[in-house]
Design goal:
single chain; alpha/beta; four-stranded mixed β-sheet; 36% helix
Length: 314
Amino acid sequence: MLTKFAAVLAAVVSVQEQTPADPNAALHIDSVEVVGSRLEDAAQNFVRTVDVEPPLGTLPGRWTKPLCISVANFRAPWGRFMVDGLTRRAIDVGLDVSGPGCHPNVLIVASGDGAQTADAIVKLDRRRFRPPVDHSSHDLSDLNHFRRSDAAVRWWQVTYPRTLAEGEVMGGRASGIETWGETNQGLISPKMAVRNPSLIAPTIRYDIETVTVVVDLSKTGDVPMSALADYIALVTLAQIDPRERFDGQSTVLNMFNEPGRYASMTDWDVDYIHAVYAADLTRNSVRGHQAEVARALVARRQARFAENSDKAPE
């Protein structure tokens, strides 16, 4: 499959020479404390602004398996720079990253025409984007947005529902074995014996299985590569809304709307992705999950404020 990807990308992708800004050339100011709003309100607002609504009938997800990262069409040394940046952020929140020879579940493709490349990848391997697992991805209108939007960076995530105890995939519509992506046989839909049924706590979890990111280099020339790497890391590790505007939030997601302000993730971004992986996601509603992430985010912010206070000169 990767050979097919390489052939198609070679045919449709015309990557423009990019002279990126120095990774440390831009600076952001992120030390201003919340004014006029309680920290809890600010955290809830941040989470609800950046989070994408999960597919109908599902709950928010996160990574549990090791990431296997593949990049294509970045000029040296920026491909390695992207891999290293995402690896560092993943390890920082407690995830593992596989080494050479693994089967890629994160694909980051650079292009001179993001829409053309996204459309070609979807046509090449539609089941990567719409696998035979119920509600594992967003709907066709969202997929069309991924294929045809004029975004500088676009992304597509697939999540699988799995049993909490065994980690078995639920809701498959095809026969075969579980390891979708490593074979062409699809998935089975195992029967699940529910132990201790509850109306409060879910009996399944939602795991991010694959992420596909397409970067249009014709639109990123003025962006520091350090900021671009962190932008990609954020949309890979968390479930970020690709159609949302993030006005009023301190986040690297605003880097295309506020040129020159961001060189990396902000403190809010860093604390948010830590909160996503620290939160107790055993609530039975989207709002409940967001509340748990917001609670973990508040704890991270409070710890940061306390640490900064301790370092302040007397």
